[in-house]
Amino acid sequence: MAETLLETFKRDVSLCNHCEHAVHLQLDVPPSAPNNAILRTNRQLYSVDMMRAEESLEEMEKALLQVEQAKDALQAASRRVERLERELLRRRDAQRAYAAPVRRLPKGIMSEIFQLSCGDESWLNDKYLMPLVLSSVCKSWRDTAHATHSIWADLSLDSWELAGTTRSPVLRRLKLFLSHSGSIPFQRCIVYYRPFTEALYVSQAFEALVEHVQRWTQLFVGLCAVDEGPRKDYFSFKGDFGRIFSHLEGKEFSCLRSLTGDPDILSEGNAKGIFRHLPSLRDVTLHCNGDMHPEVPQLPWEQLEQLDLEASPAYAVDIIRRCSNLVNLRFTNKRREDLDAAPKLAGGPVVLPRLRTLRVFESGGNKTTLLDRLTAPSLEEAILEYDSVASIDKTGFPLFLPRSHCPLRCLILYSSHTLTKSFLALLPELVKLTLYTGKKSTAGFVNMLTLGDRIGLPRFLPSLEELHIFGEIHAESNAMLAMVRARRDFGRPIQTLSLKQKCLYGISDWIDYDDKKFEQLKTLVPNYNIS
Q1: Whole-angstrom Cα distance, residue 7 to residue 52?
Q2: Which is nearest to 322 in space by CA: 349, 348, 299, 345?
Q3: In sequence order, what are the beta bridge partners of 467?
Q4: Which tens digit of pLDDT belongs to each residue from 41-69?
Q5: The predicted structure's pLDDT at residue 479
Q6: Which of 52, 212, 385, 468 could form a disulfide with 498 if both were Cys (CB 3.0 to 4.6 A apart)?
Q7: CA 354 to CA 366: how far, in whole Å?
Q8: 433 vs 471: CA distance, rounded Å
């Protein structure tokens, strides 16, 4: 192949469709790399060829400069056109807004649309808040947004964002939302943790919230969680809350429905009567983080309908005695109590005539349980969870049921112990039973549900319609199928059956898993599920 040093390169690139403005190039250039024998063979150029190559390089630099200038001019023109397009689009939006149907909507309908657009909650820490966005569109929308107090009342914040600062954007938003929300009660929980460096009561945020205390519906007063700060600060709560409560003295919590806190902290308000008069209070949650037998806070206990306690049985009974109108009660005792140091449960059983739902979680090692001192004649649902209890007969529940004579319809039981015949005989009106169990609980349990009495009804749990078993199920498929058929023949068929087996090391514990028999169960039970 002949060695070509330079070849002619000619291009004409039009820059305008309406005139002859173009880039015209004609220069000598080396052949392209695949066809360049000089480069491929690495032949050195003679002095004459070198001079021609250098002249060609100068022409190439000039051509590139010409092309770059043409490109810059075209890009500048393109940017001008894009700016013009954006301006026209904005003007078109304004033109469309003139004829937009939304401009003719009554303010009442606009207000409803705003409420739907804002959703359920405005978290003041978020970058964009829909009430602020809507109120910035135009004067009409701003006036409508400001008049729609409900979109500003659904505010939510965390005091960590406000501690020790008065210039935070969150603080400015808080004051704005408070000013535009009128007198509508807050629908979210005001969370107050005592900051580490500066107590929140000195901040403008707390002062702003206190001015609207009559609108508070939910309040959590407590310490920071252990994993959110130094452990020493978790226990050193004495004193600061007294100063906090001094700002609340004389305030009327007219809308407060729910209160959560540590009894030790809430009791610091006893002397000032901070929480004594709460006409709307219906729900209280108390967690004893320190002393198992703290002072009892002064609250309107007699009007409570829902109570959640994490405390010792003795302290729980002391509280429950004051709550004669409870409808829902949840009790948790995860710590083993020193029986010698614990005060004894004095007096007879506490009667809760309106109680409908009861949830109890108790750990082992406690000689006295809450159910030993409780009577609930109207109880319909019970959720019981026991840890390290020797027997279900030791829980107090078998004595609680006949003492209460309650129409219990739903029982959710977390227990690894055998369900005895005497225990099942206490549940004639039970409609729904859910078991989170071990093998001992289900051993023989399914067979007992198959038994009939003298008049042709199920001997145990005659009203049962829903059965859910979770855990290590110890029952043969034949027994399960026989139970379902027997209940059908008794005229009390199982309507819902859920079986969820817990597998150990990936190996099923079913004694006799027969796919065909479980397929038959599907035809006998309207709502059937196994996993």
Answers
A1: 12
A2: 299
A3: 433, 497
A4: 778 877 888 888 888 888 888 888 988 98
A5: 81
A6: 468
A7: 27
A8: 14
